[in-house]
Amino acid sequence: MTTTFPSIPYLDWIIGRTDEVTHDLATSDLRPTASFEGLVPPSLAGLPDPDDATLTGQLADRYGVSESNVLVTAGATHANFLAACALLDRAKRRRHEADASEATDATSPTDAADPTEATDAADAPKPQVLVEKPGYQPLCETPEALGARVDRFLRPPEFDHALEPHRIESAAIDSFAYAMVTNRHNPSGRLATRAELAEMARHAADVGGYLLVDEVYAPYVDPADDGPFGGVTAAGLPNVVVTGSLTKFYGLGGLRVGWLVGPEDVVERARQASMHLPSVADPSKKLARRALHNSEQLDAAARTHLSANHELLASFLAERPNLDGRIHAGGSFALLEHETHSGDEVVEAALDGDVLVVPGRFFDRSDAFRTSLGGDPEAMAAALDAFGSVLDEL
């Protein structure tokens, strides 16, 4: 099997655009608008470092798991890639063992068979990955590039993009490897509960696979929950792998620090796969340790930022009768529709007005667009004013 990595249309579209506009309503990281020249992000400057903690140990403590259940990665995209490698490998090995067992059972003592015949890679079905729809485009493209068959299961817009666990069993085939969801759901912003995720995991297990949950937006809640970073997590549930990073909630994307949390055998296989890729730079690890050591202070600042942006977006939508969509409690991004114009038409008009929002077609919704408030509230208020003027012209 040849592994190929085609372009990802959403990433091709977004790269560089945020630097070309005055008003960025596309980026969802909770970050300061102003750039900085130094090596240390302003939010970490002058804060103390832990004495002897390791980054893996800090994350294990945060999630309430063993260090053997944690792998530090170069961001959440890297974590999702390694999780896909591990879970697809597991599915292929399981299929290989099943085929070998069937070949052995079918072979009589006087009728020897070629032991490789039943497990010819050319004849083996591709491992199946089920990805939520609507969903974030790279979560489909990555497993497909790694040789998987990618199918979709709906999070129906008419039911507010709810998770419906029975859809996994309805869509799964014999080669099912894992199902992929985001929490908060990207692009709608809906937050699933741990109980809902546990039910999804149970259905995935019933058909022989895992549940992979991208939790980069899970901390986007106010007030804080009792999970890691104050958000909901599926970590520690049977048959579940979760990924996260410091990029979104802490606005520390420049560090490129993420992680994978899951069963020990899956984490170990991901670790083996990681040997083929660059590792996280030591300065990034040290700054990440500082961030987690001072998380109480950073969490409070991020939650204040999040709450202000949520109120701005919710108020904006409430004043726009020609827009339809829901701003979920505590969220600062949403998938919205215009009553008379397509998602692309809104996006093009916004670009003409020096405002960046994301076409919904990159999230399986050509009728919609995604609006995200990540920058500081003052800048976001100005961006919404500019976007409002664009919508008035429409």
Question: What is the topological layout?
Answer:
Layout: H1 9-14, E1 23-24, H2 55-63, E2 70-73, H3 76-106, E3 128-133, H4 138-145, E4 149-154, H5 166-171, E5 176-182, H6 194-206, E6 210-214, E7 240-245, E8 258-261, H7 264-274, H8 282-293, H9 295-318, E9 323-324, E10 333-338, H10 343-352, E11 355-356, E12 358-359, E13 368-372, H11 377-393
The whole-angstrom Rg is 22 Å
Q: What is the element string, with H for helices and E for strands?
A: HEHEHEHEHEHEEEHHHEEHEEEH
Q: Count the strands?
A: 13
Major sheet: 7 strands, mixed
Structural class: alpha/beta
Sheet with the most strands: spatial strand order? 2-8-7-6-5-3-4
Question: Which runs of at least 5 residues are low in confidence (pLDDT < 50)?
Answer: 115-119
Dominant shape: globular
What is the distance, rounded to the nearest whole angstrom, between the alpha carbons of the first and last residues?
A: 49 Å
Counting H and I runs of at least 4 residues, what is the number of helices? Answer: 11
**Strand portion:** 5-15%
**Helix coverage percent:** 25-40%
What is the mean pLDDT? 93
Description of the structure:
The structure is a single chain. The protein is an alpha/beta fold. The strands form three sheets. A seven-stranded mixed beta sheet has the order 2-8-7-6-5-3-4, sandwiched between helices. A four-stranded antiparallel beta sheet has the order 9-10-13-12. The termini are far apart. Helix 3 (76-106) packs across helix 7. Mean pLDDT is 93; it is low at 115-119. The protein has eleven helices and 13 strands. Residues 101-125 have a biased composition (Low complexity). Its EC number is 2.6.1.-.
